[in-house]
Structures
1.
Amino acid sequence: MKKKFRRIALGIDIGGSGIKGAPVDLKTGMFTEDRVRIPTPENASPDTIANVVKEIVDSFDLPDDVPVGISFPAPILRGVVPMIANLSQEWTGIHADELFFKKLKRPVTVLNDADAAGYAEVHFGAAHGNPATVLVLTLGTGIGSALVSAGTLVPNTEMGHIVLPRGIEAEHFASSGVFEREELSFEEWAGRLQEVFSYLEMLFSPDLFIIGGGISKKYKKYVPLISTNAPIIPAELRNGAGIVGAALMAYQENKKADKLA
């Protein structure tokens, strides 16, 4: 008998200050229950983080076959964390998919946090229904990125680390962290962002740019000063994007695995 899939999955967003989770209705992209948040233990081991994730998962009364998607602050290569910046260095080399599967005893998919947020924006947020190539840039302490074409994610793009023609990494030149630290005017910052957007447009020719991060709320102060062929629009899902994108990816990966079984 063919397995019937519910259109629901649990999304978890692991950040440097907090770990958040909620079940997501994947027809609407909306939470089905209130989000649960637990502070991230400082410099915690992978096992300690996994225990916090389990506590959040167990707080929801969901069937054992409901998959869990985990948005994680590092690249994820075939389930493995190759490097880590904002959590314990013990994560380096850890097979995150296996760690969380053993702890949660349910289907798990782990993906980069910027990828999760960008994937959510394409399927439920600012680019909902757009079949084109979309480049999502999250402007924060650094610059996170997600590239989605025809609804398919190209993982681990890390465009904040692209070296601009002037010889500096994009996020060291034009992140919102730099904007605040150097006390730039919006006009000065827009000039720096122009270099970033122009270079990325030359490399990837996206049909649409989406900007996220807290500073995206003030997009009217700087986006009109940037000239690109592709439109630049603000993200819509804000703090819920990582949870929603992780949940959607987990659902899709679990469905694919079941078809191959």
2.
Amino acid sequence: MEPIRVRWHGHSCFEVSGDEVTVVTDPHDGRSIGIQAPKVRADVVLVSHDHFDHTAVRVVSKPESRIITDPSPVKIGGLKIRGIQTFHDASEGESRGGNIAFKFILEDVSFCHLGDLGHVLTPKQAKAIGRVDVLFIPVGGVFTIDAAAAWRVIEMVKPAIIVPMHYRVGGLSLSINDISPFLEGADPDCVIKVGNIVEFSKADLDDEQLVWIFAL
């Protein structure tokens, strides 16, 4: 079995590739938020909500791409996907609407991309997500949960690997916080700078919870 390859394209956009399928999450178009556009063609595109910085499907899709925008369970080859309905704010969607947390399993590794989660998960939502190997979690606050709330969600989900996202980086035109407040809550010995791309397999994951910091 080939290793899984994860690449960060900035903001909430990740490319997750296995033997036969490439999944891209929440694509942006680059220029509208001040960073480079994703350079990838996806077999499956997951869209957590309909805001402009998460819905640039045309940038990453090809004619045969599957675009997933609702929480209904779906199986595409060896890829299993299901969504958990959440909200983009702390008032059950009154301010910013709904948000889907997508859980997907690829090459026996379970991922969860929380999109623009705007609140701490309820126990029911956390139970619906279940066991997660890799958790993509927003940490920049303002439009999503902030660092403190992110750590509360992490404690509920207990992933093996934590991947912070949706925080301010150089060039980003969105007024959100950088990653510093989030890292203040992390054990420095468990923070790993993985660069732009990381390859791993299920066997590489152990009992120690790690924070993977991606670079653009």
3.
Amino acid sequence: MAALLDPARIRSILLDIEGTTMPVDFVYGTLFPFARARVAEFLERHSQSDEVAADLEALKHGREAEAAQISGLPYWREDSRAARIESAAAYVRWLIDRDRKFTALKSLQGKIWEAGYLSGELRGQVYPDVALALQRWRRQGKTIAIFSSGSVLAQKLLFANSTAGDLTPFIGSYFDTTTGPKQEETSYRRIATALGSAPGEVLFLSDVIAELDAARRTGMQTLLCVRGGTPQAGAASQDVTHPLIRSFDEVLP
């Protein structure tokens, strides 16, 4: 039986992105292909910057750790700058194709998407009910935060350049995998602490049941967001642990 919400206790609203605030198709059909097609050119131009160099070093070590367990990884070469860029780009494409939640990958993707947002090639696609809900919750005095596997940079870019305009004035905090995995209880405890709220004062919205389960174990209030057309919609709608919504219009109206 799904636990009922206690609206009077809610001080903070924590939102997932993919499938919750924006269509899954935007990630897989637009963002991932954009980064995949431009990674080699981006590294050629920016690999000597400190931040990109740090991403590359983390990717190299991540690949080394995986090589002991996974066969068929792209080769990594260090015999020249060109070889390093070529092999790094191949590994990044390999990770993107498998939707790996690797912090260094997400960091690099965010930097590539930044160029796309600045040039106007990219605009963050959000569901029609999102902007009005963010405005409503802020009027109610709620703190709004985002938790996504995408980097904080990528999150800010998406909401700053959304199809509904700049939504960042409504969002107070952003959390990514540097906080912890999205399906681990400790991540949500850290987020509640960072928000200055007890877990029971935080409402978490996501379309992924395993994430909601982890948040619920900390004492957070949860809502299962089932958007039409998402891959999770069929199975998610059968869940009875978390109250189900199909639109943000239903949340603290």
